Amino acid sequence: MGDTNGQVIAGDHGPGDRLDQLDRPADVLIDKGTDSLLICDRWNERVLRWSRSSGTTHGEILLENIDCYGLAIDDQRYIYISDDNKHEVRRYKIGNKNGTIVAGGHGRGDGFNQLNEPTFIFVDQQQSVYVSGSNNHRVMKWTIGATEGIAIAGGQGQGNALIQLSHPRGLFVDAFGFIYVTDSENDRVMRWSQDEKQGTTIVGGNGQGQEANQLNLPVGLSFDRHGNLYIADSLNWRVQRFPIE
């Protein structure tokens, strides 16, 4: 901590589709099994693996011809990818080009077996898949093998009441089952218990702005091992850190 300059570890050769280039990357995670980055190279419609070894100059294509938006990986190193064009989430064994649908896959819609432009995803230790459905304004949970999901946050139409969301994106589920979601167009981050009908605003919710207690279209979020919450505050062009009790 305390560094003021970042280090480029992938891309930085302008937008393009060469293996040393990226174009609008949307999500990234670390595959500890290979000490590599997995990158959703969104506008190139592919997922790249990029070694974190010193001197790496390009990535390798794991999957292509996929409208990826969000990525997740489980303890068995299966990769999960949300496709916001096909309105589905698929699970892939690394090295296998054919995935299995684990959420959605029935076209765009608001049925419990449907998604509508899924964005970020999260997978828990039971391999349940949590999906931010941006245009359904809800977070869905799909247990392993399920043919329908359960709305566990939002799902009461677009709005700013505590029972509502507006284009949710970033998503995290902690060890106690609490769901954290960036409620992007309400400029707040909310926490939901899976057995409650309304959430709690834990960051933002003070109107759109650039003050320390405000957000402007938050997108991604993540936690560190100390319980600090990091938020990609997109239209304020910054990342904010908040201690969460």
Automatic annotation (TrEMBL):
Keyword Cell membrane: no
Gene Ontology annotations for the cellular component aspect, listed alphabetically: extracellular region
Keywords annotated in UniProt: Glycoprotein, Signal
InterPro entries membership: 6-blade_b-propeller_TolB-like
Annotated region (Disordered), positions in chain: 1-21
Full protein name: Uncharacterized protein
Organism in which the protein naturally occurs: Rotaria sordida
